[in-house]
Amino acid sequence: MKEKNYMNVNSWLRKELDFVPNWKRAAFTGLGLGLVLSLLMILLQPFDTYQYQSPYKNLELLGYTPCIMLSMLLMVPLENWFFHKQGQRWQIWNEILIILLGGGVMMTASHIYNVFTISGGVPSLRSWWSFIKGFGLPFFIFLAPMWAVVRQKFKGPPATAIPTREDFLLIKGQNKGEQLQLSGRNFLYAKAQQNYMEVHYWDDRGVPQKQILRLTLAQLQQQIPGAQQIHRSYLINPVHVSDITGNTRKRFVLLNTEQVSLPVSPKYYEALKEQLSNSAQ
Q: CB-based contacts of 183: which residues, under 8 Å, 6+ apart?
């Protein structure tokens, strides 16, 4: 019975969610929740807030708002790292972890602001823990469910590695029965080897794989809408490009997923640059 419950919980934690790495959403969410927190302290004055006297009291209490907003913005790079590390997957456990880590950053930032602006003194581990227990955790328990709901309700369209009409691709080779089925977002890059293509991709577990199919680069490109040719021998998924290095004579793209660099021909450089620019907008 316990093993069955564990399997059910594990299955639920690994359920996939849509993921949108969105700085604007993080900024507006942080601003909104930060204002809610500050207004609660101004209007309700919990935790003996009424004892704090200052000619700029309300303005100082509003100072917790940027602490919340900046903390949420700091989570965006971490979310992106998790998303790419797991093969363009975002699961419930990732969502829970980000909220918990974000909560820790929020409470720490609020503690530092509290020490330097309101209570005075020098930050210490003891004062941090006292602040977390007496102030941070009660408010975080209140704000965390709101943050989780906002993250799922107001996030726009999900991120995908390649803008395909269908989620899954079926790539067929020239040999009888030769085919490869994968999610479009899991395609990484492909390398031409004479009459064959070496296709690199992630499997369903996010483990890098490769398969050799008998077909030309042009035939493969027709079967992967959104793939970008960067060289006479290479196709890539532009979403996985982290940087372009080199000069006008020799350029390379760096893939943030496989830690590999692939050559870029001058013939394809401008088209690649335009594609990456459009993807960033």
A: 161, 167, 168, 169
Q: Which amino acid is at 32?
A: G
Query: Do residues 237 and 256 make contact, with C-beta atoms less than 8 angstroms apart?
Result: no
Sequence-ordered list of residues with C-beta below 8 angstroms from that of 78, at least 6 positions apart, any chain: 98, 101
Contact 172, 203 (CB under 8 A): no
Angstrom distance (rounded) from CA 78 to CA 26 = 13
Supply 270's token pair. Answer: 């401008």
Spatial separation of the C-alpha atoms in residues 216 and 195, rounded to whole Å: 6
Residues in the chain: 281
pLDDT digits (tens, 9 = 90+) for 204-251: 777 788 999 999 999 999 998 889 999 999 999 888 887 888 887 889
Q: Note the pTM of the prediction, 2 decimals.
A: 0.55
Spatial CB neighbours of 114, under 8 Å, sequence gap ≥ 6: 131, 135
Q: Which domains does the chain have, with CATH numbers?
A: 2-153 (no CATH), 168-280 (2.40.50.1020)
Task: Give the strand pairing for 187-193 and 196-202.
Answer: antiparallel
- Separation between Cα atoms, residue 65 and residue 61, nearest integer Å: 8
Q: What is the distance between the terminal CA atoms of the chain, rounded to a whole angstrom? A: 50
Number of alpha helices (DSSP H) and beta strands (DSSP E) in the chain: 9, 10
